[in-house]
Write a structure and sequence with these properties.
Number of helices: 4
Structural class: mainly alpha
Order of helices and strands: HHHH
Distance between the termini: 18 Å
Number of strands: 0
Helix content: 25-40%
Number of domains: 1
């Protein structure tokens, strides 16, 4: 885990991501997609720390069709970014995998609903 990368505005766990070597994280202006990411610019324009803090959440952004992303954004709003990273780190210590080797999906992506994602995060 690289806590300095933090959590993305959308709920993705930059701190656990290994997909983009050299990426510093969404909020550290190091994401390769920062120039085109509408979610990032929306949160910055509204002064939000997470999409989960927005009264319009979840919006129609295609990324929110993914249960992991939606759930993580809600949880960041509920418990804060530091606590969410604590929870994800504990899950990682229990061998929960964020990204399977060479893939952009992991254990959280295999779950069908928010309750299952929360259960996996919380242990």
């Amino acid at each position: 885990m690289d806590r300095e990368k933090g959590m993305a505005y959308c709920g993705l766990a930059c701190c656990l991501c290994t997909f983009q070597p050299g990426c510093r994280g969404c909020k550290e202006q190091g994401c390769p997609g920062e120039a085109w990411c509408k979610i990032r610019s929306c949160c910055q324009d509204k002064g939000l720390r997470s999409c989960g803090d927005c009264p319009s959440f979840p919006c129609d952004a295609p990324l929110f069709a993914k249960v992991k992303v939606r759930t993580f954004a809600k949880m960041v709003s509920e418990v804060g970014e530091e606590k969410m990273m604590d929870l994800l780190q504990k899950a990682e210590e229990r061998d929960v995998i964020y990204h399977y080797e060479g893939k952009i999906v992991g254990d959280y992506d295999m779950l069908k609903d928010e309750q299952e994602v929360r259960k996996l995060v919380l242990g």
